Amino acid sequence: MSSVREQVLRRKPVEPTPDEAHGGLKRTIGLIPLSAIGIGGTIGTGIFFILTQAVPIAGPAVIGSFLIAGVVAGLTAVCYAELASAVPVAGSSYSYAYATLGELTALGVGACLLLEWGVAGAAVAVGWSEYVNQLLGNLFGFTLPAALSNAPEQGGIFNLPAVILIVSCAILLIRGTSESTKINAIMVAIKIAVLVMFIVIGVQGWDSDNLRDFAPSGFAGVTSAAGIIFFSYIGLDGVATAGEEAKNPKRNMPLAILIALVVVTTLYVLVSVVAVAAQPIEGFTDQKAGLSAILQEVTGSTWPGTVIAAGAIISIFSVTLISLYGQTRILFAMSRDGMVSPIFAKVHPRTLTPVHNTVIVAIAVSLLAGLIPIDFLAEMTSIGTLAAFITVSAGVMILRHRSPDLPRGFRVPFYPVTPILSIAGSLWIISSLRVVTLYVFVVWMAAAVAWYFVYARDHSTLGRMGPGQIKQGPLV
C-alpha cells in the first residue's frame, strides 16, 4: 500500500503511454490550422469588448496594460513551446504538471484549466450577444429584448444568444476536429482583416487630446486592467491542448505558439492605440459594443460599425469554438488518467471526437453564459490562466533538471531567467485582481483537492498500475 505522499507525488512518464499513442484522437492539424487555433482562441472578446471594460480603469494607458499582458504571455509562451515539443500529448499544462510536479498538483492545474476554458467560453459568448444586438440594430433597426440578452445581474433573465452560440460550436466540434479547425482558420482570416480595417479607418479619428490624461489611476490602474484583459491570451494555451492531434508536434507546436503570440500582440497593441486616440475615455464607460461604436463615431456612418460588428460575431464564434475545444481536450486527458469520470474519454468511432464530453461541457458553459455577467467571468478566467502559466514555467525548470537529455524541438532562450520572469509576472498580475476573485479561486482549489482524495486518488490510472508497469524513465 503506497503512502499518501507517494500517491500525491507519483508522476507520469514523459513518453506517451500506449493509450496516448493510440488513444483514438487523429493527428489531422498542420502548422497553419494549429497557429489559427492560437490566434482564433486569443483574438476575440479581449479586444472587441473587454477594451471597454479596461479603459475606464487604466485610461489611455490601457495600451500599457496590453503590453504588460503580452510580455507575461510571451515569456510563458516560450515555456509552453519547450514543453509542447517535449511532451506532445493532449492536456496542455495539466499533462506537463503530471510529468513534472506529481498527481495532486496535476489535478489542481487541471482544475485551473477547466476554470480557464469553461469560464472563458462563457465570457466570450456573453460579449458575442452584445455585438449581435449591435448588428441587428444597424441592419434591421431592432435589438433583442434585454430580458433575453442579459444576465440576471444586468437586468435580464437569460442570455439566449450566448447559449445559441455555445450550442452551435458544440455541434461543430462533434462533427470532427478537422472540419472545426478548417472553419476556424477561415474565421481567423476574417477577424484579422476586420481588425486591420479598424486600424486603417480608426486612425483617421486620431485626436491627441484624448491621450492627455494618459494614466488617470496611475500604475495601479494599468496593472488592474492587465489582470482583466489577460484572459484574452488564453488561446496560446489552446495550441498546447492540441498536442495529440497535431502533425509533427515537436516542430509545429512551438512554431504555432510563437506565430500566434506575435500576430496577436501586434494586433492588440495597434488596435488599443487607435481606439484610445479616437475615443475620449468617457465614451468607453457607456459603450455596449466598443470598436464598432468607435468607427461609427469616427466616420459618421453605420457601415464601418456594421462590418466591425459582423467581424466580431465571426471572431467571437471562433474564440468560443476554441474554448470549448480546449475544455473538452483537458477533460479527455484527465479522464484517461482516471482523474474524472471515464465518460469524458469516450470517443465516437466514426468522428473520433469525444461526443459525451462535448455535450456535457456545452451544457455547463451555457448555464454560466446565460446567468453570469462578463466582468466577473473575465477575472475568473484570468486567474485560472495565470495559475496554469506559473505551472508551465516551473515545469520547464523541473524537466530541464530531471531530464536534461530529453529530446526537445524548442528550448527556452535565456534560461533560467525567462521562466523565472514568467512566474514573477504572473504572480504580479494575480496580485492586482479583486479580492473576491481570489476567494473564489481558493474555494475552487480546495474543492479540487477534496475531489482528489474523494475520487481521483483511488481511480488514478497510475495508482491502479503495479510499480513494475510504470516506466518513469529519467524522471525517477
From the spread of the alpha carbons, the general shape counts as globular
Radius of gyration: 22 Å
Q: How does the major sheet shape up?
A: none
Helix share, percent: 55-70%
Number of domains: 1
The number of helical segments is 21
From the coordinates shown, what is the CATH architecture?
Up-down Bundle
What is the mean pLDDT? Answer: 79
Find the CATH topology: Amino acid/polyamine transporter I
Task: Decide which structural class fits the backbone.
Answer: mainly alpha
The first-level CATH class is given as Mainly Alpha
CATH evolutionary superfamily: Amino acid/polyamine transporter I
Ranges with pLDDT <50 over ≥5 residues?
468-476
Count the E strands. Answer: 0
Give me the oligomer status. single chain
**Termini separation (Å)?**
19 Å
Q: Give the H and E element order.
A: HHHHHHHHHHHHHHHHHHHHH
**Residue share in β-strands:** under 5%
Structural write-up:
This protein has helices at 4-9, 18-21, 31-40, 45-48, 51-58, 62-86, 92-100, 103-140, 160-175, 177-202, 218-229, 235-241, 249-278, 282-285, 290-299, 303-336, 355-371, 374-402, 417-431, 435-459, 461-464. It has one domain: Amino acid/polyamine transporter I. α8 crosses α9 (160-175) and α18 (374-402) crosses α20. It has 21 helices and no strands. The protein is globular, with a radius of gyration of 22 Å. With 476 residues, the protein is an all-alpha fold.
